[in-house]
## 1
Amino acid sequence: MQNSHTHGRRVSRRLIATSATLLAFAVSSCSSVAPSKTATGAGTGAVLGGVGGAVIGNNSSMGTGTGALAGAGAGALIGGIVGMVQDAKDRREQDRLAQERAYQQELAKKRAEEAKLKAAMDEELAIAEGFRISDLELNDAKKKLELASDRLKKLRDERSAALQKKKELDDAQEKTLQTEAEIARLEEELARLKGEDAAPKKAEATAASGRPATP
């Protein structure tokens, strides 16, 4: 029985020493303020392993303390390994993202340089073409532009004038109809109040307006 307890203590010491070494490596390799997943995994594994080991040790001849130590060491080791794998994946992803950003920056720089070079070439071509343009050709182009602008203005003015005439005619006709309707209404109202026949007056007003009498 004593040999079993001694062997259990040795195993637990080895596991604890291994997990401690793993934790020290994780802490020393972590450059950020937040703990690495290796350290976090080792700590979580140690806690869970310690609890599980204590339960197992309590139900066996190992003892609660020995079981807790062994479980903590094993949990820290396994959790640390899992954390190291995740840290390695995170570092690879960060490296990939850094390479992608560097590529995009280099591509943007290259495109900017190409655009600048194209603008410089276009400017040189424009200057070369400018030397070949005579004053007579330039004046002729300006005169054509002036004539075209005047023609466009005249057409726009004619269009606006035609629309204005149509609008004024529609407004006049609409107001005439409204006025005649109001005249007829008032004539009928006054004739009714006076006891007269409004038909002759209505016929006279219709004849004066040039429209056929309404039966």
Note: The helical segments are 2-29, 37-58, 64-131, 135-194, 199-209.
## 2
Amino acid sequence: MTYSIIMHRIVLIFLFSSSIFADPVPAFIEALDSATFATSTPANDPDDWLMAHVDVETTGLVPGYHEMIDVGIVMTDLDGNELDRLFLRIMPNHPDRAQPGAVAVNGFSVGRWNELGFNTPLQAVRKIVDFHHRVVRNKHVLFVGYNAWFDISFLDHLFRDQGSSWRALYHYFVLDLPSMAWSLGIRDLAGQEMTAKLGIERETTDPLEHTGITGAESNVSAYRALLRIKYEKSGTSQ
């Protein structure tokens, strides 16, 4: 048997064994097959686009270790006009990981969530998906957040853990409100200072009242204020 034939057989054996022992494709990757492909942009077809203003509360700062304990979503058009909203409390799988700093902000405890009512992570994902399809129908949606990487990272882990993907709902471009403000010369990063400069009502800091939906409402107010400043600077009407 010649050397070339031996090497050819070794390669075939390697390829065959690799296919047998290859890691299976995760469900959250397969879920990307249901992500819609945008054939337009908000610039050339604004009526075909919506915005999901999202805020989440969590047990800490590290996505994948800490978890979401609630989420608020306010769906608007590109001018910030509200279409619908959703608020869900979620019982995390590891409530023992809750950091004191996070609890001081959002008032989370297992006892309080049992009293108020909550969703499991799987129920939360299903309700977010149902809400999305009911409100959005066939339009494209941009995810908008305040320090958006934080919110989308936690949403990503919530969906991944349930074999789903947030990309099946939202466009892969994610919009960040402080970045929008920065482009207008407003460089306050903290929400309280930002709202003061924008001239809008501050979100509550009471941990018993502070939730994802109060955050989402505040985000919409900030977005509207930024639009107003933009139009005032350009001398045009909204």
Note: Residues 212-234 form the longest helix (23 residues).
## 3
Amino acid sequence: MLLTLLIDASTTDYTPVIIQIVVTAGVIFGGTGFWQWKQEKDRAKREAANKEQSIGPKVDTLTTTINELSTKVDSISSGMQDIKNDILILQKANEETIKYRELRDKHDKESARVQKAAIQSLTAILRERLLDNYHHCMKKGYYTKEEREVYGEMFECYTQDPFNGNGVMHDLQPIMKSLPWTQDEAKTSEHK
């Protein structure tokens, strides 16, 4: 059709209009405009393909990183659970320790009370035995070697820890030591 217009245009004086139409059509559909548009479209397709190709490895890397982080989070979560379990065990152990200490303190107080009572009882028994020995020896008038050894050991126990006996027994000790050793010595000292 364009060719027909060109042929007809040579017979009539429409040449300048036709040239202008052809030039405009050439610019619009021809070389520069159309080809630029097509090249821009192709370049955009290539860039999109390149971006798609370069995004793929990045997505793979991100997926790997996310999986690694997920594994670490799971490991930390498991570790946290272990820590929670350990804390519970420590709390129970602490509670048992407190109970044990309370029982031990109660037992220690009871033991101290019993020990004090036992010491007081033994002190009284030692004192009684020492007095009995004193009265027996004073009545018979002499103090044998065997009695002196037994009396000395009892007196030593009576005056030292834990009994710490005191009082009259200290006053009686010199009197006991002054008694004669045998019955014959006692009879001889009576006559004097």
Note: The chain has six helices and no strands.
